[in-house]
């Protein structure tokens, strides 16, 4: 099935919007589980290009939602207990593996 650029762009924006809307209503554990499922599906040799692109777009939208939720959780924990707030690295020092700051 071939799409024009405009049809493909509309469909990809629609898929991204649907993934973001769905992600807002789902637990983070379910979101991570869905990301794992997407990864497994994309790793199979019989997944076509169009399907892979759609899955990739969905995965990116879900990953962004996970990142936002983890940042919100970190902020709540820092408010509740400021003593547990992670120290920020000095300039030039590498950030931690799980640091959510850009």
From TrEMBL:
Residues 80-102 are annotated as: Disordered. GO terms for molecular function: exodeoxyribonuclease VII activity. This is Exodeoxyribonuclease 7 small subunit. It comes from Chlorobium luteolum (strain DSM 273 / BCRC 81028 / 2530). The lineage of its organism: Bacteria, Pseudomonadati, Chlorobiota, Chlorobiia, Chlorobiales. One of its GO terms (cellular component) is cytosol. InterPro entries: Exonuc_VII_S, Exonuc_VII_ssu_sf. It is found in: Cytoplasm. The keyword Cytoplasm applies. Keywords: Cytoplasm, Exonuclease, Hydrolase, Nuclease. Belongs to the XseB family. It catalyses: Exonucleolytic cleavage in either 5'- to 3'- or 3'- to 5'-direction to yield nucleoside 5'-phosphates.
């Amino acid at each position: 099935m071939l799409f024009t650029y405009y049809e493909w762009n509309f469909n990809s924006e629609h898929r991204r919007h649907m993934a973001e809307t769905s992600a807002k209503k789902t637990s983070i554990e379910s979101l991570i589980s869905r990301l794992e499922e997407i990864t497994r599906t994309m790793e199979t040799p019989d997944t076509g290009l169009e399907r892979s692109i759609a899955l990739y777009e969905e995965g990116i939208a879900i990953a962004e939602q996970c990142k936002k939720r983890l940042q919100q959780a970190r902020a709540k924990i820092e408010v509740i207990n400021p003593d547990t707030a992670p120290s920020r690295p000095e300039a030039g020092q590498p950030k931690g593996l799980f640091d959510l700051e850009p």
